[in-house]
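S.,

As promised, the adenosine-5'-triphosphate run. Input:
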Amino acid sequence: MPKRIIAGIQRVGHSTIEGIRRLGHATRFFLLVLLKSGTSLRRFNLVIRELFYVGVLSLIIIVVSGLFVGMVLGLQGYETLQKYGSESAVGTLVALSLVRELGPVVAALLFASRAGSAITAEIGLMKATEQLSAMGMMAVDPVARVVAPRFWAGVISMPLLAAIFSVMGVFGGYLVAVVFIGVDAGSFWSQMQSNVDFRIDILNGFIKSCFFGVAVTAIAVFEGYDSPPTAEGVSGATTRTVVTSSLVILGLDFILTAFMFRGL
Amino acid sequence: MSSETLVEISDLNFSYNTRRILNGVNMSMNRGQVIAIMGGSGSGKTTLLKLIGGEITPSSGYVKVSGQVIHELSRDALFAMRRKMGMLFQFGALFTDLSVFDNVAFQMREHTNLPESMIRDLVLMKLHAVGLRGAHHLMPAELSGGMARRVALARSIALDPMLIMFDEPFTGLDPISLSVIGSLIRRLTDALEMTSVIVTHDVQESLSIVDYVYFIADGVIAAHGTPDDVRASKAPFVHQFVHGETDGPVPFHYPAQTYLKDLQLEKTVA
Ligand SMILES: Nc1ncnc2c1ncn2[C@@H]1O[C@H](COP(=O)(O)OP(=O)(O)OP(=O)(O)O)[C@@H](O)[C@H]1O
Ligand SMILES: [Mg+2]
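Predicted complex:
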């Protein structure tokens, strides 16, 4: 019996140490990627190629989800607000929810599962098939040539995708509230305009999405580069990318919100 | 043929975790030579090439390439050295997101400022040498195993290195491509005064093109000599290998406990 307890404690200790080791490893790798970003900036067409795979191919899911989230917000918002006779505020509600929270957060969650997983799987497979070793043997640094362009493409795409998500959401809210239900268009837009502040709302939402972009792509490239060079290794790493990114996005969102909107 | 030493390996030891793979290997390779490394599966041939390329670090001993100890080089110096090396990986390792043409052009684009028109000519020449000029627009996924290997070979000679390591270049080739590739390696080595290291199981083909043969077994050089020495050798090890006999000193099995024990028959026997 005591043996089993000791073994249990050992396991907890082991996984704690292992987790901290990986965190340190990931941080070092992150700094390494930043350090070796020179090539990506000098040869920007490498980043542009990845922007297509990471950003452009994520567009459809972002546009469609944004539209539906906005439509649901419009519907729910109208149902609640009309009880208080303030259905004209539905525009404000839709816009503020999207710009401050849902835009950055939901877009980042979708981005992690669409683009993050793809980045991890691609880098992991390149490692498993010795393409990264082969590149190193050709005196080309795989971190500079393969990892850094994908990282920067993710960092650039994320805020843009979040913005597109919010725009589509506002349009969805407009469709439901104004076109279908018949809220006055003038008050819908003017209320939104006077209550959404550029610095407090839009800029903060933008800053959030930048943080999420860095976090998701950093996790994705690290998991790919660190994955065991086997089929199970790559599939496990892909799953970890989605799970870890999602948790980090939600945790980070809480911290950032606390800093940004506490005084309001 | 000049006899200047390009690669010198001295008392090289290497282990994966606690398993000893190489156990005091000594070799020397001259410019203008084609050298074959033979040995049973799992005897550490690929490991030896990785040590020469500096991908892994020996636990003791050293590899010197043109007078410099590989594992003591700084990262930049190692990369500078690797520009003069080519390596054909055992499983090809073509970049799957690039076409055949772009795979061969990869190093030219990364390391030189050659104009695109000249890169085009060079790439087509390299592909022509391996008989795949017509396949330059294909993606690696569209190639057969032997074709992929030949593209990888064209890629490894793209920048005319001074040292090329071929990890099983003949595997998966039909007899015709096999002798074409064999004589290509020979001709390149002579024309460019480079050094080629071939890891191979193809005893007959390699004996006809190489200058020197090393046999690895149990982590050491079990035998070495010129092809004529090898053919004439009476050493049981060499004889077994060259003639592909099942009985002899080379074990076919990976080290294990006794077969009886593994099948759990020992208890009943005892
Ligand atoms: N990454 C690794 N981790 C642990 N052990 C390894 C690793 N790679 C190879 N080995 C072990 O090292 C030994 C030598 O492997 P190596 O790949 O050098 O063999 P080889 O001579 O090239 O064999 P083959 O002719 O089958 O390609 C093998 O027994 C293998 O089990
Ligand atoms: Mg091998």
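The first strand of chain B starts at residue 5 and ends at 16. The pocket of magnesium ion (ligand 2) is lined by residues B 45-46, 90, 167 (CB under 6 Å).

- D.
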